[in-house]
Amino acid sequence: MALVLQLLGTKYSNASFAALVNSLNPIVIMIMAAVFLHEQFTFQKGAGLFLGIIGVYFIIGGVHGSDMMTGIILSLISVLIWSYVSIIIRKIGHSYHPLIITAWSMGVALVCTLPASAIELAHTPVTWDSTVVLSLLYMAVMCTCVAHLLWNESLSLAEAGTCSAFYPVQPLTAAVLGILFLGESVTLSFWTGSALILIGVMLCLVHLDRSSRAGKKLRASSHHPS
């Protein structure tokens, strides 16, 4: 549902604005993680996410257009749903293997989306050539199954707020691939946004490293009673 609303939000607004709204995911995830999972909200996390979102704004070149309220609302609902799902996965990640969680979520999604897909295909015929088939296979395997499995695995290993810090890397990766494969130009805003995103991620990784070392010290002290 979150992905469907995200696509509809892009359709009824524009790609740049939808990308900016979707970049709010880490902030919402961090807030929900603090409320529902009692994860600590640190200065490093907050500063890292702020720099990452500013970097996204630089890379996508701002937002343009008007009369996009429907797209804005759909994108915001998508952000809320996906963030809450991430919190749930983090919560049950210690009880169920990420592969099991991914398989069940893919199965439920398949049942829910097949009727809508059949209706859309009936109204919008598709020319099935090798390019379309390979593209669909890539999106199904890599962009859906593998991506969701890795995300679920990450949530089982690290805090939801820490995992969310990597969201701003998505538009950065898209921009790099556009430069490499589509010959898109490199601008000053791209380098500025890239630097901000990388600095933001590094700040969150510093927090993760400190938390990991603190946890190891706590476990070590518990095994050596005085």
Mind explaining what this structure looks like?
This protein has about 230 residues and is an all-alpha fold. It has a domain of about 160 residues. It is about 80% helix and about 0% strand. It contains ten helices and no strands. The chain starts with a helix and ends with a helix.
Residue share in helices?
Answer: over 70%
Structural class: mainly alpha
What's the total number of strands? 0
What is the mean predicted local confidence, pLDDT? 78
Largest β sheet strand count, sense and barrel closure? none
Strand content: under 5%
Q: What order do the SSEs take from the amino end to the carboxyl end, as H and E?
A: HHHHHHHHHH
Report the span from N to C terminus: 53 Å
Task: Label this structure with key terms.
single chain, 226 residues, mainly alpha, 10 helices, 0% strand
Quick overview:
Helices cover 80% and strands 0% of the residues.
